[in-house]
Structure formats: C-alpha cells, structure tokens
C-alpha cells in the first residue's frame, strides 16, 4: 500500500497551479510575471520586485543537509503551521476524516482540522505527560488519517522515546500518517527521528527555524517526508511561500558565523535551563517544575494566577497554560538571557503585593 492511498483522491488527481517563476527557464530579461522592473526604495539588492523561487534551491539544500534528508524529502514553507494545514487539507475529507492528538499539545493541529471540518480525536497524555502508545493505537478508526505527536511536547516539555515512535509507526502502517512535531528537538537529549523516513513511508517530521535558529520572525518551517508526500503537498501549496528578506535571513543563519552563533546560544539555553529548573523549584509558592527537554519550563504554582499577575506587573510576560488538561496550576516560562532569567527569579522570590488576585487565562495560540 502506498501512503498516498490515505490522501484525498481529488487532491491526488488535481492539476497544480503553474506560476510564472516555475515556468521560467534561464533568461536574463524577465517579462513573464507582470512584476515591476524597478526595485523598491531600500531594497539593498534583495530584489523584492521579483517573485522568489517557489522552493529556493539554496535554502532547500541547506535545510536538507541540516536535517539529514534528501532535498526531494523536504518542503519549506511559512513556519510549521503551513505544513500542518497542508497535511490536513491533503489527507482529510471535510465531514468524513479525522486527526488524532494527545492533549495537552500544540493547538494548531486541532485548529487546522476544524477549519477543514475534520474531526479531532483526543487520547490524553498520562498524568506524567507520557504518551500511551497502546491507547493511541486502540483509538484509531478508519476515519483517522493523521496522528500528530509533539516531542518535546508543547506545553509540558516531555519527550516521546524513539522506541515509542517506532511502535506507533508499526501500528499505523497502512492506517494513518504519523506526523512528529520536532519544533524543540535541538534542545532535547535525543535526536530527530527523520532518519526513519526511508524505512516508514507514512512518517512525516515537522521542523522549524523559529526556536534554536532564532528566526521566529522569518516564519520558516519544514516538512520532512517521503518524496511522494512532498510532491502531493506541492500540488496545493501557494506558489511563493518564502519572502526574499526571510530567505536572506535564513541563508545568513546557515553561514559559518551564523551556525557558530546558534550553537553558542543553544549551549547558553541548556545551561540556563538547568539553573532555572533548580532555582524555580526552590522558590516559595512553586509546587513543581515539570521535566522538560525544550527551551522552556512548565512550572506548577500554589497560585498560578497570582504568579502570572506578579510577573506581568513587573513587565515580565510568561505563558499562562492553565487552560490545558492537567496543567490547571501551571505557567510556561521560556529560557531567556541570563539577566532575563534573573529577573523572573527576583520577581517570583519577592514578597507578595497585597490585594493582587489571579488573572484570567490567556488565549490559545501556536508553538510560541
């Protein structure tokens, strides 16, 4: 069975949009895309008057080398969100098919499914935020086309073991596509499972440059999957996903200087992670600091609302995650610069201010 048998037949049969840039071959004078012949003010040689490549060759080759896959196994787009949306639209028929998630988890899986009018089946994580493979497999129905697994998990920080990923892959063979979201894998003790793509055609892996590579504002994410899945998604992907300034920022990040800087920053995050974990656990009012292999810590408080308000009053914004299952008393705190982390500790360690009450839960959002 081909993994494409799980996809919507009308998507497999459709004719993709062919952009002017796709059809251009060679040439020095470009008069085929109705672009302006003049660069805008302040362009500084970027060339924003021209459409970018649909899948910029230099970026795709750099990301493929970084992630250890072949270029035909990689699709680059507007953050991980675009890849999630494309997967749901390609594999889930509206009103008929479903995805499966394990809450608490990243909210965009369910959002994309509901926009597509696909059902969302939930198999909650255990109380210690570990994934129950047997429960996930038992919940699979013929309607389930995509199973999303976030590891390290957002918002808990807990990881799913490679053995459990393989058990899921074996149990889902011929039944559903497993999508492993590795947005935070650079901070984890284990590596990516992207090397399993050649063994399991029904595995897809999400990666992003937003976290470890400090390019959240550039909105560049990747989907790693079999060449067949990548080709399928390109049928429905808008033609110009990567703006030229974002491409320039990503290529600069992949320079020798950029890679050295990224490694230094990741090392700082890991060091600060351990310092913050120990320091937060010792603070009065902190009930527990959850195990995390990401660039954040989920922290349980005796009064999470008061802690959130106290930090906000001091100008420190953290994430209120009390709306998530099993996290009704928790805040998520990103690991920042040492001085920013010191500020968090100073504020939380200071005496409470009389009359301060709990704040309302913030709205749901994406991986940030």
From TrEMBL:
It catalyses: L-histidinol phosphate + 2-oxoglutarate = 3-(imidazol-4-yl)-2-oxopropyl phosphate + L-glutamate. Residues 46-348 form the Aminotransferase class I/classII large domain. Its cofactor is pyridoxal 5'-phosphate. Keywords: Amino-acid biosynthesis, Aminotransferase, Histidine biosynthesis, Pyridoxal phosphate, Transferase. Residues 346-368 are annotated as: Disordered. NCBIfam families: hisC (TIGR01141). This is Histidinol-phosphate aminotransferase. It comes from Rhodanobacter ginsengisoli. The lineage of its organism: Bacteria, Pseudomonadati, Pseudomonadota, Gammaproteobacteria, Lysobacterales.
């Amino acid at each position: 069975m081909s993994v494409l048998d799980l996809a919507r037949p009308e998507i497999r049969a459709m004719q993709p949009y062919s952009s002017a840039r796709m059809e251009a071959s060679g040439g020095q004078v470009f008069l085929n895309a109705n672009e302006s012949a003049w660069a805008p003010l302040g362009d500084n040689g970027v060339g924003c008057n021209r459409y970018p490549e649909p899948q910029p060759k230099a970026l795709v080759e750099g990301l493929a080398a970084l992630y250890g896959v072949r270029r035909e196994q990689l699709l680059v787009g507007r953050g991980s969100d675009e890849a999630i949306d494309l997967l749901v639209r390609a594999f889930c028929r509206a009103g008929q098919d479903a995805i499966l998630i394990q809450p608490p988890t990243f909210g965009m899986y369910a959002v994309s499914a509901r926009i597509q009018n696909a059902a969302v089946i939930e198999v909650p994580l255990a109380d210690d935020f570990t994934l129950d493979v047997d429960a996930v497999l038992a919940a699979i129905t013929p309607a389930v086309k995509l199973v999303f697994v976030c590891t390290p998990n957002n918002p808990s920080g807990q990881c799913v073991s490679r053995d459990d990923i393989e058990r899921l892959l074996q149990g889902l063979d011929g039944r559903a596509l497993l999508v492993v979201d590795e947005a935070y894998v650079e901070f984890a003790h284990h590596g990516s499972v992207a090397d399993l793509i050649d063994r399991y055609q029904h595995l897809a892996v999400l990666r992003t440059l937003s976290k470890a590579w400090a390019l959240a504002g550039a909105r560049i994410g990747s989907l790693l999957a079999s060449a067949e899945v990548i080709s399928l998604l390109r049928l429905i992907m808008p033609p110009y996903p990567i703006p030229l300034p974002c491409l320039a920022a990503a290529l600069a990040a992949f320079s020798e200087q950029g890679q050295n800087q990224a490694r230094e920053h990741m090392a700082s995050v890991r060091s600060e992670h351990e310092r913050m974990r120990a320091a937060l656990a010792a603070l009065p009012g902190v009930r527990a600091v959850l195990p995390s292999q990401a660039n954040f810590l989920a922290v349980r408080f005796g009064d999470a609302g008061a802690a959130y308000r106290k930090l906000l009053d001091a100008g420190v914004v953290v994430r209120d995650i009390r709306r998530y299952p099993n996290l009704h008393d928790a805040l998520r705190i990103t690991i920042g610069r040492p001085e920013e982390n010191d500020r968090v500790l100073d504020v939380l360690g200071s005496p409470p201010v009389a009359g301060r009450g709990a704040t309302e839960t913030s709205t749901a959002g994406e991986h940030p």
